[in-house]
């Protein structure tokens, strides 16, 4: 039995982005309850040389929209990555979820063999088949940034656990 590229991508991105949205809601509520300026969490990072929470969320949604769009062979929406508040991060997630909802299985299934080129014309150029792009590059990158966003908030005292990370499935 095979699994479709659509089933391995869009529902997974949606589940995790909805869970990330819920985690951000809990972080904002935690900040209010503890009288902590919300920007402290939005700008928090695990290590000085790592991106802050807001950038982790931006990159996670960039991978969700980019991977799904490239597999569907449609233009990748471009957003300015200027979010600095919980509300702005939530709006970004909402935009990307709407984009994911616009992609159908017919647009992605059967694209295992298409060529996807990342960073074309640069020394970092990589060529993938559609299946390899999703499974060995896109999903691992996406999960890294979702996980790091979760870890930043957990490290800073937000009471979240594995169920929060996983969301509804």
Automatic annotation (TrEMBL):
Classification via Pfam families: DUF1993
Superkingdom assignment: Bacteria
Q: Which InterPro entries match?
A: DinB/YfiT-like, DUF1993
Coiled coil spans: none
**What is the protein's given name?**
DUF1993 domain-containing protein
UniProt source species: Pseudomonas gingeri
């Amino acid at each position: 039995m095979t699994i479709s590229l659509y089933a391995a991508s869009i529902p997974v991105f949606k589940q995790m982005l909805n869970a990330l949205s819920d985690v951000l809601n809990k972080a904002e509520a935690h900040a209010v309850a503890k009288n902590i300026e919300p920007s402290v969490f939005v700008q928090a990072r695990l290590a000085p040389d790592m991106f802050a929470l807001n950038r982790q969320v931006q990159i996670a949604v960039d991978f969700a929209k980019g991977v799904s769009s490239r597999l569907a062979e449609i233009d990748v929406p471009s957003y300015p990555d200027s979010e600095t508040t919980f509300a702005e991060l939530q709006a970004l997630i909402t935009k990307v979820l709407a984009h994911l909802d616009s992609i159908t299985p017919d647009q992605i299934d059967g694209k295992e063999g298409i060529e996807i080129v990342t960073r074309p014309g640069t020394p970092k150029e990589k060529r993938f088949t559609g299946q390899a792009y999703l499974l060995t590059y896109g999903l691992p990158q996406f999960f890294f940034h979702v996980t790091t966003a979760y870890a930043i908030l957990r490290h800073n005292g937000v009471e979240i656990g594995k169920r929060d990370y996983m969301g509804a499935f």
